[in-house]
Amino acid sequence: MSRRQVGSSIRRNGPSFPFSGALHSKSKSSPLLSVALVLVGAFLLIAYCYSGSGVFKGDKAATVSRVEGDYSCTLDVQSAIPVLKKAYGDSMRKVLHVGPDTCSVVSSMLKEDETEAWGVEPYDIEDADGNCKSLVQKGIVRVADVKFPLPYRAKSFSLVIVSDALDYLSPKYLNRTLPELARVSSDGLVIFAGYPGKQRAKLPELSKFGRPAKMRSSSWWIRFFVSTSLEENDVVAKKFDQAATKKAYQPSCQVFHLKSYH
C-alpha cells in the first residue's frame, strides 16, 4: 500500500518570532517587560512544537498514523489487544484481522501466548517491509479484495476483527462483506469503525475501494446489523468496557461486538 508522507511547508523568507519587535522597540518600556515578552514568546513556541509532535496529546492522538497523518482504527486495534483478550478469553485463540496494515496487527497478536493470528490486506503491498512480505509468503497474510468472498471455509476462525475497511464500502458491498466476515467466524465479529467527522486517508484507499470513506453513526450501524440478521453481543461488550476501564484504554473508534451466524 502506497504511503504518502505529509510534509510541513517551510517558509523561505526567514524566521519570524512573535514578540521579536520588543527587542528592537525604541519605546521607553522597561527592560523587565521586554524580557517577559521574550520568555512568553519562547514558551509558546516550545509548546507549539511539542503539541505538533504529540507530546501534549491524549490517548486519541495515538491512533493517528505517523506515516500518513490520517485517522486510523487499525492502530486502535493494536492498543486494544490486551482488552480484547480479557473480554473474549479463549475466543482469541485463532483470530483473523481484516484491514489495512494487517501485518502490524498480526505481528502484535503473534507475540501473545496461545494466539494464532491471520490477516487479510485489502491493498497491494509492493512497498511492504520484509516482515510483512514474509507473512505473505508464509500464507499468514493474504492480499484480497474484501468486496468478494473471503478465501476461507465457514467458521475458520474463532474471532474476526475488521478495521479501516468497512467505512469505504457502500451499502451494496457491505451487504456482501459483513455476512462474509461473520461466516468465517465461530465466536464473534469485532468491528472498529470511524466516527462521523473524522479524517481518513485519501488517494491510496480510493485506488482500491473506489470511493472515499464514509463515517456512519452508531445508530446507522445498528440498523444495518439488524438488516443483515447480525446480533450485538451485549455480554462481551460489557466485559470489553469493564476491561477497557481497568486498563485505561479509550478507543478513538466505534467498537461493535457481534455474534457469529449459527
In short:
With 262 residues, the protein is α/β, with parallel strands linked by helices.
Mind explaining what this structure looks like?
The structure is a single chain. With 262 residues, the chain is α/β, with parallel strands linked by helices. It has a single domain (73-259), classed as Rossmann fold (3-Layer(aba) Sandwich). The chain is 39% helix and 13% strand. It is built from nine helices and six strands. It has helices at 21-24, 31-53, 74-88, 102-110, 130-137, 171-183, 203-209, 218-227, 234-246; strands at 94-98, 116-121, 141-143, 157-163, 185-193, 254-258. Strand 1, helix 4 (102-110) and strand 2 form a beta-alpha-beta unit. Helix 3 (74-88) runs parallel beside helix 4 (102-110) and helix 3 (74-88) packs across helix 9 (234-246). The chain crosses the membrane at residues 32-50. GO terms for molecular function: methyltransferase activity. Keywords: Membrane, Methyltransferase, Transferase, Transmembrane, Transmembrane helix. One of its GO terms (biological process) is methylation.
